[in-house]
Structures are given as C-alpha cells and as structure tokens.
Amino acid sequence: MRNHYTVLIIGGGTAGVMVAARLLKNFKMLRGNIGIIDPADSHYYQPLWTLVGGGAVDKKQTRRNMKSVIPKDADWIKESVESFNPYQNSIMTLDKNIFTYDYLVVAPGIQVNWALIKGLKETLGKNNVCSNYSYEHVHYTWETIRTFRGGNAIFTHPNTPVKCGGAPQKIMYLAEDAFQKFGVRKQANVTFVSANPAIFDVPKYRNVLEKVIERKGIKAYFRSHLTEVDGEKKQAVFEDLETGCNIKKDFQMLHVTPPMEAPTFLKNSLLADEKGWIDVDKYTLQHKQFLNIFGLGDASNLPTSKTGAAIRKQAPVVAKNIIALMKKGPLKAQYDGYTSCPIVTGYNKLVLAEFDYNKQPKETMPFNQAVERRSMYFLKKDLLPIMYWKGMLKGRM
User: Fold this and answer.
1) Burial of residue 36 (number of CB atoms within 10 Å: 0-12, 13-18, 19+)
2) DSSP state letter for 163
3) Alpha carbon distance 29, 45 (integer Å)
4) Number of structural domains, the chain?
5) Is residue 302 part of a domain?
6) Mean pLDDT, the chain, as a whole number?
7) pLDDT above 90 (res 288)
8) Same-domain status, 77 and 159
9) Are residues 54 and 120 in the same domain?
10) Largest CB tally within 10 Å, which of 40, 226, 248, 284?
11) Could you tell me the pTM of the whole model?
12) What would the pLDDT profile of 350-397 be if each residue is shown by its tens digit?
C-alpha cells in the first residue's frame, strides 16, 4: 500500500472532493499524487434533505457511491483517521496505518452528536420524533408531517454550530404548508424553539423571515434549546439559556436539529483551536501554525455559516494556495466569507440569502433576493443538484 502523497486530503465530502478535483485540473503533476481518506461507502448531497423531509424529493436522489465521486487520478483510502502528527507530516488511521504528506487538507465535515439530547437516540424515527439530519431517518419526517392530525408541532435549533443553519426552519415552513394542504392547520400549533437570538443573522433576510413567521402564525422562542426527549410520553424538555430554567412541552410532532461538533479525532489534535475546529487563517485557509496544512468546510473555525455554497468558494482558494506554496510563491487567493442559504419558505417559495463575513448581502442575481420567489425554489430543487454532481465535484465551478 502506498503511504506517501504530495497532497493528502482528510474527508471525501464536498470540500475534500472539490479540492482534489481543482488541484488535479489545474496542476497536472499532482495526478496520481493525491490521496483522499474517508471510510464512508456513500457520498450525500445533503441540501436536498429538506425537500425529502417535505415529501418533494426521493432521498435516493441524494446518494451516490463514494467511489463514483472520487476523482479518477486520486487514490481513495477507505479508512478512518485516528490522529495527526503535524511535526512528522503524518497521520495515523484506526487500522494503525501511517500516511505521510507534503501538504495536508483537513476537511472531515462536522460530527452529529445525537447523544447530547437525552432520550433522542432511543426515540428518533418513531413516536413522531424526526430529523432531516439523518439519511436513515429523513423519510420519517414526511411520514410524520403527512399523518399529523393536530396539536403541537415543534421544530428545534440547538446551541451549537450546525451545517446549513437555515435547515431547521426550512422544514417548518414546508410542514406548515402541508398542514394547510391537508386541512389540519387550524388544529396545529407550530412552534420554533431556537438557541439563536433571532430567526436569521443578516438583517436584510431576517426582516423577510420575520414576516414569513408572522404570516404563517408560527410562534418563535429564542435563546432556548432542546435537552431531553421522552418519545412515548410525547414530552420535550428545553433549557432557557438566559435563566437556566427548564421548560417541559408536550408535542404531537417534534423535528430535532441535533447538536453538532468537530470530529473527535480533530478536537483532540494539535490542529484544533480551543473549541475543537481546525484553526486556519480566515482569508487564506492556511493553518495558523503548520503552514503546509489547510482546512475548509464544516470542520473549520471560519466565522461564517457551514454550507455547501461556502465550500464552493473555499475550495478554489485552498487549491490555488497549495499550488502557490508548492511553487514557493505568495498566497494570493483569499476567501471573503461568502456563504449562501437558500431558505425554503414553502412549496414553490424560497429566499436566496447570500452574504459575507461582515453579514453584508453578496447577491448573485440581478434582483432583490430578500423576496420569496418561485424561480429560486426550482433553482434549489432542480438546478443546484445538477450543478453539484456535474460541476462542483468535477472542479468545474
């Protein structure tokens, strides 16, 4: 087995595959000299899981065999990372294999921690407790919405960073629309409980989303998060983050966005900051201490939303700066914090939020994107998946 690569990439998700594809496309000498470490059999297009949970897309459309997305001139190492040794330019896998590198890209994604909510693992996927953050259970969200007959429908957002920060509220808007369609809206109390201080960080989009909540008659409670679930009793416990008090709520439907964190092997490494994320310069994406290491994607400590759209802008920066470093030149490529959150506000309605590090809109379209639009809904549902599979993962955009 080969154990040294010019560029070793941790993670075969969006970030890792995009960087590999970009490097191979723009620097031919790297062909055959890139390794991607990832133990997963499948690669997922997770942005569509909201629409799967809303009954608009089949979840099978979101999964591909991992081998099919790995660039042909890169090696796929189907193992899990156990530890880093940046002083020796090496990593060790759980199988105790050691791989060395000249340059390392760390993009393992984010770790979902279901166990941080007491009782959640035992009841997820039954008792009307659902979550769009699991391929295994995402179809149950639609089953729960479809069979809902009234009562409290609660949607949560945890007190941790999450991938696609808008997703916890997107499914709520779809559910409210579905309740209208099925004739049970008058019997439903739709509630959003979020650890965040507001419905959205960027004022321009916050204003329109506050109007959406008002129009739909949704009750929003901020600075609270879910700590415990009893599925059989249909009860959930929330902690008020301002007072520390616990509040118990009954439910007939509970959609949970679970707490998330950096992968354990990263948190325990020399590459991590005090919160466990890979510690990189927010502009060049180069590690602050180990200069032949770069990090991007959901596992990075970049002060922006963790989305695939953000990765689409980060990956070219990493690829260009690695090539610059190999050529002993300055790192000229810079990332400005761009991210995008296509916020589905109902079937056939979407607000396309795009912004940078300064929370300033950075819009692509030649019109005001802080408006619910049918065209943007179909952009998300039909066009963006094609762009992802055929463009982003191939290093073409």
Assistant:
1) buried
2) B
3) 30
4) 2
5) yes
6) 97
7) yes
8) no
9) no
10) 226
11) 0.97
12) 999 999 999 999 999 999 999 999 999 999 999 999 999 999 999 998
Q: Is residue 131 part of a domain?
A: yes
- Read off the pLDDT of each residue in 59-74 and give the average, rounded to a whole number: 97
In this predicted structure, the answer to whether residue 64 has a pLDDT above a threshold of 90 is yes
Asked if residue 322 and residue 245 are part of one domain, the reply reads no
Residue 98, amino acid: I
3-state helix, strand, coil in the chain (%, to 5): 30, 30, 40
* Cα distance between the two ends of the chain: 33
pLDDT in the model for residue 1: 66
Let me know whether 26 and 88 are in one domain.
yes
The answer on 290 and 229 residing in a single domain is no
Q: Is 267 part of any domain? A: yes
pLDDT in tens, 318-331: 999 999 999 999 99
Average pLDDT estimate for 59-73: 97
CA nearest to 314, candidates 290, 280, 265, 264: 280
pLDDT, tens only, 86-132: 999 999 999 999 999 999 999 999 999 999 999 999 999 999 999 99
pLDDT exceeds cutoff 70 at 335: yes
Q: How large is the angle between the packed helices 14-26 and 308-326, nearest 10 degrees?
A: 40
**3-class DSSP state for residue 299?**
helix
Integer-rounded Cα Rg, in Å, for the chain is: 21
Residue 250 and residue 270 in one domain: no
Residue 301, token pair as written in the block: 């400590």
Which domain range does residue 250 map to?
113-260
Region label for 217, one of left (φ > 0), alpha (ψ between -120 and 50) or beta (otherwise): left
Q: Give catalytic residues, as residue numbers.
A: 164, 341
Question: Residue 230 sits in a domain of what CATH number?
Answer: 3.50.50.60
